[in-house]
């Protein structure tokens, strides 16, 4: 008898506690509003974090040693880009000219710009190579042949490098803090939208062009582009 | 492209190694390591931990004096073609598409940045040419300045192997392009081990081109998966059907027999 009493008492107590637990939760309009508001605030905060703050944190801006005007030089040379960016006899590409080729013309001050003064004082007088930050630098495992693209593929410089040859100002160099490569590899547009062929230089940009032109699509594994064309 | 799939009409680079000429000096191993930025450790005694793209083995005929005879066998990657084009043991097992077969050159490639180190290829390779990097490469101070800029260094946790000095092929191609050619000549593309061999035991070239020395020496029979017609020539583990592109030559019968996985009974039958 006593056991049944105890049981009924217990069940009453349980019911009482359940009731007290439920009382404060009253699903009303105000709490739904809070949830929606919290969601919107969080959504906007993460958008701002991802699209504005993170890219600012990811890229550090590094100044070039001094400004260089491609436009001025392009007017003075005879053979266009190849006057300074030429092929060597062994098929390799000279890339950014060494100080030696600059001095061929710049033994004396040629103009009166501040940038040239820095160049003459800091580099020509001290016989130091100019430590340019290279916008197009790719990882070590990437092999790129200028000869194959320019000589055999008959591509022009603009297709990959854009209109840098007509520019007066060097673009700001932004370095990815994690990968240490220039922002030009990912593309200046942080959302990755590509409008011109020179906007991005990631692996897919190379691979797409190779696929469109049927270059080296000889892989046994994928029947598509072989990796050993550009990687080693 | 359709024309690309006709391997028999394109280049197929291969090697002929004359074991009669090989003195076992190991110059090919040294040249290979220097050329390809192959890492090394202080203790290189454990062959399972050490990385060597080219390795010189010593074989003996196991007979007592005075019939004792030895032979050295340099072993780079065999660049197997398999029974049909590009069906190499390692290429068919790679889950990451890190290793591939190039139809234009016949070279089995290894993309280090693509490999994630599962080592299926090492298990599949019957020649033990594939090696796993157990450690990150550490060069003695100052030596990193001597590294070859044409080859990327490999990190810990991935597989690497001989590439027939593929970067030299790329550079030779570049020179040809600048001179307005598409094809490269025999002497323009040679591997580091070939050039380092003081005894000229290693010959390298295009097996599909009858004017190249490798073709003349090995005389590959295209109807029988490139089996050498030269009676002195043989390939390692011919019976597996891997169709490798490294041909060995020896005037000694025991050496030629040692190149395959014959059972004792089969060997006794062949010897008599």
Verbal overview:
Chain A has 232 residues and is mainly alpha-helical. Chain A has one domain. Helix content of chain A is 43%, strand content 3%. Chain A has 9 helices and 2 strands; from the N terminus they run H-H-E-H-H-H-H-H-E-H-H. Chain A has helices at 2-22, 29-58, 70-76, 99-103, 114-124, 146-152, 158-161, 183-186, 203-212, and strands at 59-62, 173-176. A two-stranded antiparallel ribbon of chain A has the order 1-2. The longest helix of chain A is centred in the N-terminal third of the chain and has 30 residues, at 29-58. Chain B is of the alpha+beta class and 272 residues long. Chain B has one domain: 2-Layer Sandwich (Alpha-Beta Plaits), CATH 3.30.70.20. In chain B, the strands form 5 sheets. In chain B, strands 8-1-12-11 form a 4-stranded mixed β-sheet. Chain B is globular and about 55 Å long. The N and C termini of chain B lie far apart (51 Å). Mean pLDDT of chain B is 91; it is low at 1-5.
Order of helices and strands of chain A: HHEHHHHHEHH
- Can you tell me the number of structural domains of chain A? 1
* Beta-strand fraction estimate of chain A: under 5%
How would you describe the shape of chain B?
A: globular
Question: What is the name of the CATH architecture of chain B?
Answer: 2-Layer Sandwich
Task: Kindly report the greatest chain-chain contact and the residue count on each side.
Answer: A-B, 27 and 39 residues
> What oligomeric assembly is this protein in?
heterodimer
Side by side, the strands of the main sheet of chain B go: 8-1-12-11
């Amino acid at each position: 008898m006593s056991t049944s009493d105890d049981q009924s008492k217990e069940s009453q107590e349980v019911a009482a506690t359940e009731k007290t637990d439920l009382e404060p939760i009253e699903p009303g309009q105000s709490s739904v509003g809070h949830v929606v508001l919290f969601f919107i605030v969080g959504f906007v905060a993460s958008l701002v974090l991802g699209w504005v703050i993170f890219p600012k944190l990811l890229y550090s801006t590094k100044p070039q040693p001094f400004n260089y005007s491609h436009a001025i030089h392009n007017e003075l040379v005879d053979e266009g880009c190849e006057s300074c960016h030429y092929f060597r006899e062994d098929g390799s590409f000279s890339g950014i000219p060494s100080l030696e080729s600059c001095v061929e013309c710049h033994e004396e001050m040629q103009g009166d710009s501040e940038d040239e003064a820095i160049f003459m004082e800091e580099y020509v007088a001290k016989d130091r190579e100019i430590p340019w930050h290279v916008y197009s630098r790719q990882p070590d495992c990437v092999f790129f042949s200028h000869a194959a693209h320019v000589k055999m593929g008959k591509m022009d410089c603009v297709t990959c490098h854009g209109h840098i040859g007509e520019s007066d100002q060097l673009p700001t160099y932004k370095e990815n803090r994690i990968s240490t490569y220039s922002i030009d590899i990912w593309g200046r547009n942080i959302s990755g939208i590509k409008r011109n062929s020179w906007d991005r230089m990631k692996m897919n940009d190379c691979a797409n062009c190779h696929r469109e032109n049927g270059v080296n699509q000889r892989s046994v594994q994928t029947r598509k582009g072989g990796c050993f064309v550009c990687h080693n | 492209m359709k024309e690309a799939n006709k391997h028999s009409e394109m280049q197929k680079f291969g090697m002929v190694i004359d074991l009669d000429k090989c003195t076992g000096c190991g110059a090919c191993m040294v040249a290979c390591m220097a050329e390809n930025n192959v890492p090394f450790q202080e203790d290189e005694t454990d062959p399972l931990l050490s990385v060597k793209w080219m390795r010189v083995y010593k074989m003996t005929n196991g007979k007592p004096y005075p019939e004792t005879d030895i032979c050295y066998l340099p072993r780079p990657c065999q660049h197997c073609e398999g029974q049909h084009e590009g069906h190499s043991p390692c290429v068919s097992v790679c889950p990451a598409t890190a290793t591939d077969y190039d139809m234009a050159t016949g070279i089995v490639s290894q993309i280090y940045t693509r490999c994630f180190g599962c080592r299926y290829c090492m298990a599949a390779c019957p020649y033990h040419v594939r090696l796993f990097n157990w450690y990150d490469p550490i060069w003695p101070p100052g030596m990193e300045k001597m590294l070859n800029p044409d080859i990327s260094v490999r990190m810990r946790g991935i597989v690497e192997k001989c590439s027939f000095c593929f970067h030299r092929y790329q550079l030779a191609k570049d020179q040809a392009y600048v001179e307005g050619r598409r094809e490269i000549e025999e002497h323009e593309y040679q591997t580091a081990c070939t050039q380092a061999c003081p005894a000229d035991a290693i010959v390298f070239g295009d097996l599909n081109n009858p004017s190249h020395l490798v073709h003349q020496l090995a005389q590959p029979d295209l109807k029988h998966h490139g089996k050498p017609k030269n009676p002195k020539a043989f390939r390692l583990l011919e019976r597996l059907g891997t169709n490798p592109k490294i041909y060995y030559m020896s005037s000694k019968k025991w050496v030629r027999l040692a190149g395959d996985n014959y059972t004792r009974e089969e060997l006794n039958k062949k010897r008599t």
